[in-house]
Amino acid sequence: MKTSATRPAALATLLPFLKPHRRLLVLAVSALVIAAAATLALPLAFRLVIDAGFAAASTASIDRYFLGLFAVALILAVATALRFYWVTLFGERVVADLRQAVYRHLLGLDLGFHETNRTGELLSRLTTDTELIQTVLGSSASVALRSALMLLGASVLLVITSPRLAALIALVIPFVVAPIVLFGRRVRRLSRQSQDRIADTSAVAGETLAALRTVQAHAREAYEAERFGAAVLAALAAAVRRTRMRALLTATVILLVFGAIALVLWLGARAVIAGGMSGGELGQFVLYAVIAAGSIGSLSEVWGDVQRATGAAERLGELLATDSRIRAPEQPVRLGPGSGRIEFDRVSFSYPSRPGVNALTDFDLHIRPGEHIALVGPSGAGKTTVLQLLLRFYDPQQGSIRLDGVDLRQLALSDLRSRLALVPQQPVIFAGTVYDNIRYGRLDASPAEIRAAARAAEAHEFIAALPDGYDTHLGERGARLSGGQQQRIAIARALLSRAPVLLLDEATSALDSHSEHLIQQALQRLMENRTTVVIAHRLATVLRADRIIVMDRGHIVAEGSHAALLAQGGLYAELARLQFADTGAGAARL
Ligand code: ADP
């Protein structure tokens, strides 16, 4: 169930990810407190060096005081380094866990979810949103804590050192801080704009490079370069605006802070001359004032980070709280060795992204174990939908689908899908070796089994001719293979899986007759002893089928053998005339 997370609840989604790393957190906070204490002790050590050290005028005591000063600096250095290391590590570890959890969750969400959410946006949640959280956990949060501690400590010590000057500072602070905060906000807004423009340039470049064939085929290089140029110029303009504001901010900060310090120094110096205060005390006071001012500055800087990370946590929390609509029961029915009997019983279904429009209506189909079924029908008839429902990518609104007598909703998803081998119309080739790609069908297959599957899929010959044989990298989306070769890899993958049911979406594009012949042979082997449901685009396939199911607009309109259906005339005869006309000659030879 989707919960609409409120802000505190959004941060609470992070808690389970923080918990396993609480030891690191404790270490980091301890180092942070020590470092803050050392920073606050520095001005005190400084004062002692000035007042007592110089006054005593004996080198021995000067040595002692300087040694003390150095010791404080050493503690500060070590504690700061440890704080940095532990805090950063904490942020990195938490976010590594978070990324894995979000990705795993995304993989499990149903296709309906993925159809209504853009991949690009999900990817940005996985990278940008988690990165924001990492910034906060791994640095901003510690900066904020340290600054808050120092501000508190410095303020108290200011009052102790000189209540009168402290009161004066309290009066001056708002005049210093207000302009800085205001400027800071504008700088932040402008940097966000600048980030967005930069993201635009990568979007333009990414889109164009992915479609480079089309770009070059239309000779649109100059046009695309100009489009990118415009995006770059927009990013540049945003960067210039941000930089200008930032420069102005720097000048303002320096002027205001030094002005305030000069004012305090001036008043302090008069107090020293009048004898109300020692030189060391004044020095100590000024240092505390600088620390306090610096802390306020960094607090205002990290506040924006914290806000953005809260937004990011909110979005990730929503995502993690989204449940898949396709879920297995707590106690799934285990399938036996099973024969691959399939029953569709009065199934009606509409896609989640198009409710109200039925893709299948009252669909009834019983398939015997080992039977070969060919689905034919015009585009949009619902053939692909039948395969998608069998894979339980979606659940039907009415009726039931059973495998070996068990409703699909009673089965564990992995159990169900291990019974089904899918050969899609456009096979997916991953960036990896030939071995990796075929092994996807069954991860524990041995190299010998993979080669056997490739042989049976008529793929061995062309694989052996590749530069590194089975170890050849296929490149992104199998760019180095022809369409027919990709199909045979997909067939080998299905052969390897040993699933009793084969779901095949035949390629529509015509191949040369040699490839066609090889693929038909490979398919013949793949279909042996398997219950098969084929979306048929080839005459050879329908001739071979035990039963042809003719579909139109989500209904079965006729069924039978090729000859019987031809004799009936109607939709099938029409389809056969149009669809199988050009492949008929080649296929008839088989
Ligand atoms: P076929 O495979 O026979 O060409 P499909 O099963 O793909 O037909 O489609 C059946 C109907 O369902 C069509 O009207 C199609 O537009 C619709 N459809 C298919 N996939 C989706 C989807 N993911 N979301 C919404 N509608 C879909």
Structure description:
The structure is a single chain. The chain has 21 helices and 10 strands. It is an alpha/beta fold. The protein folds into 3 domains: 10-320, ABC transporter transmembrane region fold (Up-down Bundle); 341-419 and 501-511 and 530-590, Rossmann fold (3-Layer(aba) Sandwich); 428-498, P-loop containing nucleotide triphosphate hydrolases (Rossmann fold, 3-Layer(aba) Sandwich). Helix 3 packs parallel to helix 6, helix 3 (22-56) runs antiparallel to helix 10 (279-321) and helix 4 (59-108) runs antiparallel to helix 6. Mean pLDDT is 85; it is low at 1-6 and 583-590. Bound molecules: adenosine-5'-diphosphate. Residues 115, 351, 353-354, 359, 377, 379-385 line the site of adenosine-5'-diphosphate.
Which structural traits does this protein have?
590 residues, alpha/beta, ABC transporter transmembrane region fold, Rossmann fold, 3 domains, six-stranded mixed β-sheet, four-stranded antiparallel β-sheet, 21 helices, 66% helix, disordered N terminus, disordered C terminus, binds adenosine-5'-diphosphate
